[in-house]
């Protein structure tokens, strides 16, 4: 008959935590496992945040200046662009519709020359292109139509050694028609504004010109190349396509930002997923270190385990001791990694500038990465996924060594310990 004065020990009793903490104090492998999990979790959060920042910034830059849906004419030139743009702007979910004339040119100055893309835009529409209008570095867009001048990207202006107030020469092969064919046309335009979108490719390529000037320069004869439609929500393209096609009231061909940039964003998504899998291996290696450390700890403490068993500790209690020992490394390492990852992610640009200044090397050249600053966007869902993944791997890593400790025969351990 059981002794009524004897009480059963509850799971995770204080002595179990005491022993687990004592086993952790002097283990070098525990420290290495902790550092591995911390760095793995931090690296995962930092990389995913930077990849999210890349996608967000590139989408905002690409869509901010290029629109969401592009309406191109079929069968006949788009000479009725004012009426079509007015009808499209009234479609539900459409923020604005901007017609423009587009053409390739060679831009030159007394100092240099470069290829460029000219967009002819109505003066009333220039303030609506917020990516340009809200990022002026020199000059103004007031009275843009009457100025007869152009707005130039900052990097293009720097490459040509020009600034607001100077003149830029533009050469197009689509000039005047003669009996001998089309002759190139060259004309000098005053620079009325210099803008910086923040995407190097655009800042080094784009030139904005009054539409009337662009039509005359490219021989468009009163028509537009395209109408850009900007939506309130970039992800609702499919819902808006049919309404826009009906509102155009003429044959048109519609394309959207996803079609134009499908390869680019698909590659970015694939890279992000591959980086997640590769960096998860860091956490997995740290979890394997926990297994190795606990196996060695069980072997080293076999005599202690045997004594605990002879004193009345159950197999489940022994198992819990080693589960707590291993899980503590994973949990504390994960939390430390989250703190480090968030700290770096939220200050990534300042850190980049500090390291660049310290080493004298450009760690984020805008010419290669398109953006002028290193972006980072922390996604709480992804952080939660990383935390759950790291803790789950750490907990699973403790199962086998803890089971071995619980199955240890106290008689054999004391005989050969």
TrEMBL record:
<feature type="transmembrane region" description="Helical">
    <location>
        <begin position="274"/>
        <end position="298"/>
    </location>
</feature>
<dbReference type="GO" id="GO:0042953">
    <property type="term" value="P:lipoprotein transport"/>
</dbReference>
<dbReference type="InterPro" id="IPR051447">
    <property type="entry name" value="Lipoprotein-release_system"/>
</dbReference>
<keyword id="KW-0449">Lipoprotein</keyword>
<feature type="transmembrane region" description="Helical">
    <location>
        <begin position="318"/>
        <end position="342"/>
    </location>
</feature>
<feature type="transmembrane region" description="Helical">
    <location>
        <begin position="383"/>
        <end position="400"/>
    </location>
</feature>
<keyword id="KW-1003">Cell membrane</keyword>
<dbReference type="InterPro" id="IPR003838">
    <property type="entry name" value="ABC3_permease_C"/>
</dbReference>
<keyword id="KW-0813">Transport</keyword>
<keyword id="KW-0812">Transmembrane</keyword>
<dbReference type="Pfam" id="PF12704">
    <property type="entry name" value="MacB_PCD"/>
</dbReference>
<feature type="domain" description="MacB-like periplasmic core">
    <location>
        <begin position="31"/>
        <end position="246"/>
    </location>
</feature>
<keyword id="KW-1133">Transmembrane helix</keyword>
<feature type="domain" description="ABC3 transporter permease C-terminal">
    <location>
        <begin position="277"/>
        <end position="410"/>
    </location>
</feature>
<dbReference type="InterPro" id="IPR025857">
    <property type="entry name" value="MacB_PCD"/>
</dbReference>
<dbReference type="InterPro" id="IPR011925">
    <property type="entry name" value="LolCE_TM"/>
</dbReference>
<protein>
    <submittedName>
        <fullName>Lipoprotein-releasing ABC transporter permease subunit</fullName>
    </submittedName>
</protein>
<comment type="similarity">
    <text>Belongs to the ABC-4 integral membrane protein family. LolC/E subfamily.</text>
</comment>
<dbReference type="GO" id="GO:0044874">
    <property type="term" value="P:lipoprotein localization to outer membrane"/>
</dbReference>
<dbReference type="GO" id="GO:0098797">
    <property type="term" value="C:plasma membrane protein complex"/>
</dbReference>
<feature type="transmembrane region" description="Helical">
    <location>
        <begin position="28"/>
        <end position="51"/>
    </location>
</feature>
<dbReference type="Pfam" id="PF02687">
    <property type="entry name" value="FtsX"/>
</dbReference>
<keyword id="KW-0472">Membrane</keyword>
């Amino acid at each position: 008959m059981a002794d009524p004065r004897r009480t059963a020990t509850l799971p995770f009793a204080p002595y179990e935590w005491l022993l687990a903490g004592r086993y952790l104090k002097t283990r070098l492998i525990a420290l290495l496992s902790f550092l591995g999990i911390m760095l793995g979790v931090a690296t995962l959060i930092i990389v995913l945040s930077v990849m999210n920042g890349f996608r967000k910034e590139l989408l905002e830059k690409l869509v901010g200046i290029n629109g969401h849906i592009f309406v191109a004419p079929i069968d006949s030139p788009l000479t009725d662009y004012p009426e079509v743009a007015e009808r499209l702007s009234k479609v539900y979910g459409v923020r604005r519709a901007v017609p423009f004339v587009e053409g390739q040119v060679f831009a030159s100055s007394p100092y240099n020359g470069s290829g460029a893309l000219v967009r002819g835009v109505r003066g009333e529409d220039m303030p609506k292109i917020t990516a340009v209008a809200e990022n002026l570095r020199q000059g103004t867009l007031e009275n843009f139509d009457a100025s007869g001048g152009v707005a130039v990207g900052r990097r293009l202006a720097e490459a040509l050694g020009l600034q607001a107030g100077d003149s830029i020469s533009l050469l197009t092969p689509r000039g005047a028609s003669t009996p001998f064919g089309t002759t190139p046309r060259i004309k000098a335009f005053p620079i009325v504004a210099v803008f910086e979108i923040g995407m190097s490719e655009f800042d080094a390529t784009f030139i904005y010109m009054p539409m009337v000037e662009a039509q005359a320069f490219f021989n468009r004869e009163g028509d537009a190349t395209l109408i850009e439609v900007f939506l309130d929500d970039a992800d609702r393209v499919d819902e808006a396509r049919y309404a826009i096609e009906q509102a155009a009231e003429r044959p048109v061909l519609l394309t959207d930002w996803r079609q134009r940039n499908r390869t680019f964003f698909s590659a970015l998504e694939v890279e992000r997923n591959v980086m997640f899998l590769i960096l998860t291996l860091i956490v997995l290696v740290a979890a394997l270190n926990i297994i190795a450390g606990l196996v060695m700890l069980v072997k080293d403490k076999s005599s202690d385990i045997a004594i605990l068993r002879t004193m009345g500790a159950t197999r489940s209690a022994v198992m819990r001791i080693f589960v707590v020992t291993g899980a503590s490394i994973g949990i504390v390492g994960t939390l430390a990694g989250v703190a480090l990852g968030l700290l770096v992610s939220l200050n990534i640009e300042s850190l980049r500038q500090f390291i660049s200044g310290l080493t004298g090397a450009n760690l984020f050249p805008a010419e290669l990465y398109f953006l002028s600053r290193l972006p980072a966007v922390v996604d709480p869902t992804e952080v939660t996924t990383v935390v759950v993944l790291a803790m789950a791997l750490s907990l699973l890593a403790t199962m086998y060594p803890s089971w071995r400790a619980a199955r240890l025969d106290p008689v054999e351990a004391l005989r050969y310990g």
